[in-house]
Amino acid sequence: MVGKSYSLVTKVVAGSASQRLGKGLSEALKCDLVQIESKRFPDGEGYVRILSDVSGETVAIVQNTYPDQNMVELFLLQDATRRAGAKRIITVVPYFGYARQDKQFQPGEAISASALAKLIEAHSDATITVDLHNLNTLASFSKPVANASVMKATGEFLKGKADAILSPDKGSIGRAREAARVAGVQFDHIEKKRLDGSTVQMTPKELNVRGKRVAIVDDIIATGGTMMKAAEQLRAQGATRVIAVCTHGLFTGGALDKLRQSFDEVHACDTLESPASTISAAGSIAAEIYKFRS
After folding, report:
1. 11-149+281-291 CATH pick, 3.40.50.2020, 3.40.50.300, 3.30.420.40, 3.40.50.450
2. Sign (positive/negative) of CA torsion 189, 266, 227, 96?
């Protein structure tokens, strides 16, 4: 977190993409959930209206920026909330779309994560993200910002379900470490070794998974291809049960159904609402909001 702190949230506004999480956050903060009207005109343009009094209040707006129409709705909600007289706005972005374009990979590209950060904070006093793909994106914000980690909630959820927690690569082992610490189990990362032009071996770096219930924890699951390959090989190495867990379940191209054929269980947080959203990010976000207290 950077910058000065803000008063505790007194009202929560949940966008159409984050209704479930918004309700959970209002309960965690013990404050009112503001009713809104949200609709689409025949030409696809959006419309929002704040239906409760927020004058003089510190308001948390909860809304994803994926897909693009939800990003536009967030900007409309910020404008409507400010025009309704809110004293301060804390914008909560459960899933930060465009986060993976966090640098120029080729000349002439937009740094989408940075551009979006500046747009979000233009009409906000503070911002909270959740398990941001690259924490370097936080440097794009000039106003107070915090990133909530759901690994504590993930570890609590996995207590009694897993004997070991793996990250899909070395770069994300910090997530597995934190979840495993809370769950009280071992952790490791999966190492990929190319055997030939078409064969890749995926094994834990040090951990022997034989006879163990294993959870693979990642921040985002989109197509799920790598996760499914890992599940197959972990079973071949003797794992008795394999569980997929992620913060943000995009599940593109029917990935959730495919994952459920490969894994014994598939779980995601409610940052993106789906049938797999069994872990709530509300408590983790509330903890960061409390830090904004003046």
Report:
1. 3.40.50.2020
2. negative
- List the CATH code of the domain at 152-270: 3.40.50.2020
Distance CA 182, CA 97 (A): 28
Which pTM does this prediction carry?
0.92
**Options 23, 87, 152, 192, the catalytic residue:** 192
Give the Cα separation of 12 and 3 in Å (integer): 22
pLDDT for residue 128: 97
Verify whether residue 192 is a known catalytic residue: yes
Among 55, 64, 123, smallest CA distance to 92 is for: 64
Taking only the tens place, the pLDDT of each residue in 156-199 is 999 999 999 999 999 889 999 999 999 999 999 998 776 665 56
Whether 113 contacts 145, CB under 8 Å: no
